[in-house]
């Protein structure tokens, strides 16, 4: 067993051990993203290799491309293992830990803070639809496009923050909120295929999910109008909906979310700089 410490290409430290013979050491995966809680991580390994994240085998493209997500509370250590030609190397990376802010919101209708018993079946059914849409796998790699911001407006909510509705702490927020008038156009940040289009879900109102490939999807909620339907192929920059104030909201805005399957990620990390207002 050969143990080494190296500096990664993204400026974070990576410690790895190699089980292959020294003359045939497997190189670490090439990563194109900083490792931070909430990040969408993508890169490459040699073709015909296998990649495991924390012991779970990931699907790769024919040329060795891969993608995965780091959730809001991901551990400080990320373990990746690459297998090639019967040999395996294990790589351990440091994941930057974040601190999240708390946001208090008053004036939310009590039925949305604590839904009535009569609505629980509806909520469970809608949650099942969303989960199924995010679980699907297609071989596309549209998430590699340079992303577009889906709407213009003021940033009013960020990923990871915990909201307190009417004094009741709720689970953390997992999207990027962009506030603007009802009817503001919303466009696709990447190419993709619509995996869910629902006019009025209990919590999220008008809800749209677009699959960008390899388990990566965008979710757009609180929509006023949806201009596409399930199965439609979408081009980057295409108008897909209009901003609304549907579902559990205190005003019109878009809640844009990025997922890797059911791992919730931070859309803001797709951009190198995010102003407080998008024009």
CATH top level of the largest domain is Mainly Beta
Question: Structural class per helix/strand content?
Answer: mainly beta
Report strand %: 35-45%
Unreliable spans are 1-17, 19-23
Characterize the largest beta sheet: strand count, sense, and whether it forms a barrel.
11 strands, antiparallel
* Multimer state: single chain
Helix content: under 10%
Question: Order of SSEs, N→C?
Answer: EEEEEEEEEEHHEEEEEEEEEEEEE
Number of structurally distinct domains:
2
The count of DSSP E runs of length 2 or more, i.e. the number of strands, is 23
List keywords for this structure.
six-stranded antiparallel sheet, Glucose Permease (Domain IIA), 2 helices, eleven-stranded antiparallel sheet, 279 residues, 2 domains, 7% helix, mainly beta
Please, could you describe this protein's structure?
Helices cover 7% and strands 44% of the residues. By secondary structure, it is mainly β. It has two domains: 2-94, no CATH class; 102-278, Glucose Permease (Domain IIA). The strands form four sheets. Strands 11, 14, 15, 16, 17, 18, 19, 20, 21, 22 and 23 form an eleven-stranded antiparallel β-sheet that branches. Strands 1-2-9-8-5-6 form a six-stranded antiparallel β-sheet, with no helix packed on it. Strand 21 and strand 22 (263-265) form a beta hairpin. The longest helix is centred in the middle third of the chain and has 16 residues, at 120-135. The chain starts with a strand and ends with a strand. Residues 1-17 and 19-23 have low confidence and may be disordered.
């Amino acid at each position: 067993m050969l143990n080494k410490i190296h500096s990664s290409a993204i400026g974070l430290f990576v410690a790895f051990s190699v089980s292959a013979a020294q003359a045939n050491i497997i190189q670490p995966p090439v990563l194109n993203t900083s490792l931070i809680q909430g990040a969408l991580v993508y890169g490459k390994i040699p073709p015909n290799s296998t990649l495991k994240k924390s012991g779970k085998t990931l699907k790769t493209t024919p040329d060795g491309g891969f993608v995965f997500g780091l959730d809001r509370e991901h551990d400080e250590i990320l373990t990746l293992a690459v297998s090639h030609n019967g040999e395996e190397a294990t790589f351990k990376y440091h994941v930057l830990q974040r601190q999240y802010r708390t946001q208090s919101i008053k004036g939310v209708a009590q039925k949305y803070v604590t839904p009535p018993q009569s609505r629980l079946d509806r909520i469970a059914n809608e949650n099942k639809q969303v989960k199924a849409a995010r679980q699907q796998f297609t071989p596309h790699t549209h998430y590699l496009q340079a992303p577009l911001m889906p709407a213009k407006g003021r940033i009013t909510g960020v990923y990871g923050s915990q909201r307190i509705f009417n004094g009741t702490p709720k689970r953390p927020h997992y999207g990027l909120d962009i506030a603007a008038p009802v009817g503001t156009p919303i466009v696709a940040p990447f190419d993709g295929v619509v995996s869910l289009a629902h006019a009025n879900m209990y919590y999220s109102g008008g809800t749209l999910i677009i699959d960008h490939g390899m388990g990566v999807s965008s979710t757009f909620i609180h929509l006023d109008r949806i201009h596409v339907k399930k199965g439609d192929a979408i081009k980057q920059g295409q108008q897909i909906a209009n901003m609304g104030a549907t579902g559990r909201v205190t005003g019109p805005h878009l809640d844009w979310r990025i997922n890797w399957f059911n791992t919730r990620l931070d859309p803001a990390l797709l951009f190198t700089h995010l102003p407080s207002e998008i024009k």
